[in-house]
Design brief:
Structural class: alpha/beta
Strand order of the largest sheet: 2-8-7-6-5-3-4
Number of strands: 12
Shape: globular
CATH class of the largest domain: Alpha Beta
Radius of gyration: 21 Å
Strand content: 5-15%
CATH superfamily of the largest domain: Type I PLP-dependent aspartate aminotransferase-like (Major domain)
Number of domains: 2
Distance between the termini: 55 Å
CATH architecture of the largest domain: 3-Layer(aba) Sandwich
């Protein structure tokens, strides 16, 4: 009997989980850890969404198997969201599928459309599922930069010219997790032309669609005429409505890709619990003021974090979107590497951040800091960081 499992051998230890385990142990020991590591919203969903969940869950008929592709009302609600937000028309029957969060959707899509030996273009640094979803499916990853400048296009050009076999799928993620970089519609227009010319499918992860700041809304690749010929897009209820644990997301766009994902999911799951799907309908169809409130809350936290951490001696960039800032290690700490620095920060400053190396080789030298604590806790984190930096310097 062999204990050398093919897919497990291709997956290194999950670095993010290592720091999470340290944080959990510290809290179990009674220490007050300020958790800026995981992108876990600290606010509840809107009350009317919770009420809808309870209302539907109280019905005796609501507890059977649901629909793997999502109940019709929820698929219509997502199509309506795309129409009013991006001006994109979607057929809820053939161009929308409900997923158990965008992470499951991306993983199931990787299973549906890739085979051992296929080459997938994925960003680096990247949210782990963007690469490991395909690695688990047996494919091979060729990395491209996240920064949407001419180096990006040169990397795509080189990948198509020198990779055998030629890549079949490109993953894009803007606003980026972890780097928070954004793109404009002109970028997507160029990308759609490139994908059509090179016969490459595009999977766009738009999980942070509504967490944009300074009055600069994010764009969807599907806004580009003809994008549905080559692309699908993944979105999530997790951050927009503070519903991370509910595990509701969507994949929309190209009918062929949607059909493939739907077919694979029909073998893997029966869909999310029906009351959760009904509550998600209430979120999408109901008052949208909570979306703006969440956006303003994170924008204010961003400003507090940038100001207080910079005064503490750790200059960090102001992200244009998402719930993260992607920060270089503080001056004088570069030699530690991101994982050791994250461990030291947790141990001595009682502040948890995510080590950049957990997002790929290009993430080394950085950490991802989440804006998931209130302003008072963020300022306390900055004071702890200042003390840690000062003591290390001394």
């Amino acid at each position: 009997m062999s204990d050398e499992f093919y897919r497990i051998k291709r997956m290194p230890p999950y670095v993010i989980a290592e720091v999470n385990a340290m944080r959990h142990a510290a809290r179990q020991a009674g220490r007050d850890i300020i958790d800026l590591g995981m992108g876990n919203p600290d606010q509840p969903p809107p009350q009317h969404v919770i009420d809808k969940l309870c209302e539907v869950a109280a019905k005796p008929t609501a507890h059977g198997y649901s629909q793997s592709k999502g109940i019709p009302g929820l698929r219509r609600a997502q199509a309506n969201y795309y129409q009013r937000r991006f001006g994109v028309e979607l057929d809820p029957n053939s161009e929308v599928v409900v997923t158990m969060g965008s992470k499951e959707g991306l993983s199931s899509m990787a299973t549906a459309i890739s085979a051992p030996g296929d080459v997938i273009l994925a960003p680096s640094p990247a949210y782990p599922i963007h690469t490991y979803g395909f690695i688990i499916a047996g494919a091979t990853i060729r990395s491209v930069p996240t920064t949407p400048d001419e180096r990006y296009w040169k990397a795509l050009e080189n990948a198509m010219a020198y990779t055998v076999p030629r890549p079949t799928v490109l993953v894009v993620n803007y606003p980026s997790n972890p780097t928070a970089e954004t793109v404009d519609l002109a970028f997507y227009e160029r990308l759609v032309d490139w994908a059509r010319e090179n016969k490459v499918w595009v999977l766009s992860d738009l999980a942070y669609s509504e967490l944009y700041y300074d009055g600069k809304p994010t764009r969807s690749i599907l806004e580009v005429p003809g994008a549905k010929d080559v692309a699908v897009e993944f979105t999530s209820m997790s951050k927009t409505f503070s519903m991370a644990g509910w595990r509701i997301g969507f994949c929309v766009g190209n009918q062929q890709l949607i059909a493939a994902l739907t077919r694979v999911k029909s073998y893997l799951d029966y869909g999310a619990f029906t009351p959760i799907q009904a509550a998600a309908c209430a979120a999408l169809n109901g008052p949208q003021d909570v979306v703006e409130q969440n956006r303003l809350r994170y924008q204010h936290r961003r400003d507090v974090m940038v100001e207080s951490f910079t005064r503490a001696g750790w200059p960090i960039p102001s992200p244009p979107a998402s719930m993260f800032t992607w920060a270089k290690l503080p001056p004088g700490f570069e030699h530690m590497g991101s994982l050791e620095f994250s461990k030291q920060l947790l141990q001595h400053a009682e502040v948890a951040v995510a080590a950049g190396v957990g997002f790929g080789e290009e993430g080394e030298g950085y950490v991802r800091i989440a804006m998931v604590e209130n302003e008072q806790r963020i300022r306390q984190a900055a004071r702890n960081v200042k003390k840690f930096l000062t003591e290390h310097a001394r």
